[in-house]
């Protein structure tokens, strides 16, 4: 026997099917044909005005050709279109970047809007659960503008009322596959509006050679690679602390060495001091001469060097107190960058408990108080779990290179970073494709940015040592 549910009787009473006792017929109000006609004409005219307003050139070209055909016949129209096509082809040939910016990417964006996004919008939204089909009506998020760059499509979307960014972030896989892309990133642009980024190609797929050493001493954001838009990746090291996390072979060394490389002229001019802690005795020992006496490898030496850095910091803080609130690098008070390779060797894997506590306390002191007085820490580590690195949140700026597990991404970059598209666990383990590739999340911006560090080879490091260690000795 089926259980009778409350309301079953009412369902039989109020029914639209003719075999039940009481037949309920909803009133049908017929809309006069003229009103429907006016609505369609209105929609057509407003779409026409909108298209002319938004795409004046795209509308003017076919209209001009149509007018030429009508008034002067098809040969004139054909030769006119030939001339326009030739002019565009020569423009593309002579100045590709400006042609791509002003014509190419706009045409591509229009084509992809029509052929990819508008065509698949309804099924992708319904199947992914971002749209609803209720009583024969579709309620879909509004597809906005599509903009193309050299590597990706940026699609603006107006969310349905009541939707949250997380609803979209949870469905990036559905969106990517639905629109034929490898991945999708979600960013909030305004209240209720999102920008979805669908990469078409990977501009960071090939390794970058080491960047030239700057001509002028610079402590400001240093150029160490490229971001996904093809712009130089400039990392701020003065006035912050940077944590670099990545599995073995992820390319942590390329970030450390690219930063050191770009600070060399400033170090040479006395505006920067590079202090190196190299408990693995692998990475930094290669350029040991660049650090002079500020190089430590054994845990005891590392603890000593960190204590020294805390001392410098505290003396400066005492001198600056009440006089200045931020640090400007000078020869008297240079910016001190403490570089720590594999910090977990000193904090988690260190068997001597007292030494471990001393090192952790020094690192915590530097990362909480150092940046205002010109002492920064840049630490690299493989395993970002809290048990291994309990002070990871004290680093304002974080970089996640290739990681082994998806949960580690948020551990490094902060909550929600993976949902926003920082897929560090999906970076290729093949060094040519993925080493040095990562996501940066800066203190000032919650959006993770995909980047690739330039590769500083052993040969480059030797050349750096030859050029700058000798100068340091001579000075
Ligand atoms: N930016 C880069 N671009 C291209 N290839 C790179 C880059 N960085 C590193 N590689 C390649 O990847 C290999 C591993 O790099 P690296 O030793 O720096 O990784 P790591 O993260 O420091 O690893 P580990 O923690 O084991 O020391 C290098 O030998 C090099 O061939």
TrEMBL record:
Keyword Transcription tagged: no
Stretches assigned to the FtsK domain: 230-410
Transmembrane segments: 20-41, 53-71
Top-rank taxon, per record: Bacteria
Positions of ATP binding: 246-253
Pfam families given in the database record: FtsK_SpoIIIE (PF01580)
Keyword Nucleotide-binding among record annotations: yes
Keywords, sorted A to Z: ATP-binding, Membrane, Nucleotide-binding, Transmembrane, Transmembrane helix
InterPro entries: FtsK/SpoIIIE/SftA (IPR050206), FtsK_dom (IPR002543), P-loop_NTPase (IPR027417)
Protein name: FtsK/SpoIIIE domain-containing protein
Organism of this sequence: Nonomuraea spiralis
């Amino acid at each position: 026997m089926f259980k009778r549910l409350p309301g079953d009787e009412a369902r039989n009473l109020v029914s639209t099917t003719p075999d039940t006792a009481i037949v309920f017929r909803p009133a049908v109000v017929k809309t006069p044909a003229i009103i429907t006609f006016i609505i369609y004409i209105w929609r057509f005219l407003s779409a026409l005005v909108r298209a002319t307003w938004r795409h004046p050139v795209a509308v003017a070209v076919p209209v001009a050709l149509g007018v030429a055909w009508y008034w002067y016949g098809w040969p004139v129209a054909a030769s006119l279109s030939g001339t326009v096509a030739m002019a565009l082809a020569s423009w593309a040939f002579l100045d590709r970047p400006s042609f791509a910016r002003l014509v190419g990417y706009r045409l591509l964006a229009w084509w992809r809007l029509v052929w990819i996004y508008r065509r698949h919008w309804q099924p992708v939204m319904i199947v992914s659960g971002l749209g609803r089909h209720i009583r024969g009506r579709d309620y879909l998020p509004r597809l906005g503008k599509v903009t193309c760059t050299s590597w990706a499509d940026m699609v603006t979307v107006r969310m349905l009322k009541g939707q949250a960014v997380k609803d979209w972030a949870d469905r990036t896989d559905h969106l990517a596959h639905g629109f034929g892309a490898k991945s999708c990133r979600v960013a909030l642009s305004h209240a209720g509006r999102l920008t979805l980024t669908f990469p078409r190609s990977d501009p960071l797929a090939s390794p970058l050679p080491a960047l030239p050493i700057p001509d002028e001493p610079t402590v400001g954001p240093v150029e160490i690679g490229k971001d996904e838009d093809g712009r130089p990746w400039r990392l701020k090291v003065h006035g912050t602390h940077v944590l670099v996390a990545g599995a073995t072979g992820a390319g942590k060394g390329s970030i450390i060495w690219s930063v050191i490389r770009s600070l060399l002229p400033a170090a040479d001019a006395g505006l920067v001091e590079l202090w190196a802690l190299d408990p693995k005795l692998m990475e930094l020992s290669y350029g040991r001469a660049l650090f002079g006496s500020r190089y430590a490898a054994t845990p005891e030496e590392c603890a000593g060097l960190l204590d020294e850095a805390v001392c410098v910091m505290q003396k400066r803080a005492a001198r600056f107190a009440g006089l200045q609130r931020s640090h400007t690098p000078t020869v008297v008070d240079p910016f001190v960058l403490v570089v720590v390779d594999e910090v977990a060797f000193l904090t988690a894997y260190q068997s001597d408990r007292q030494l471990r506590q001393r090192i952790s306390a020094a690192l915590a002191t530097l990362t909480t108080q150092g940046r205002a007085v010109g002492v920064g820490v840049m630490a690299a580590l493989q395993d970002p779990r809290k048990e291994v690195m309990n002070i990871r949140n004290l680093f304002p700026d974080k970089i996640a290179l290739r990681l082994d597990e998806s949960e580690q991404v948020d551990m490094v970059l902060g909550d929600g970073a993976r949902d926003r598209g920082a897929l560090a666990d999906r970076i290729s383990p093949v060094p040519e494709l993925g080493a040095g590739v990562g996501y940066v999340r800066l203190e000032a911006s919650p959006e993770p940015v995909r980047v690739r560090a330039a590769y500083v080879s052993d040969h480059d490091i030797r050349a750096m040592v030859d050029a700058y260690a000798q100068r340091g000795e001579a000075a």
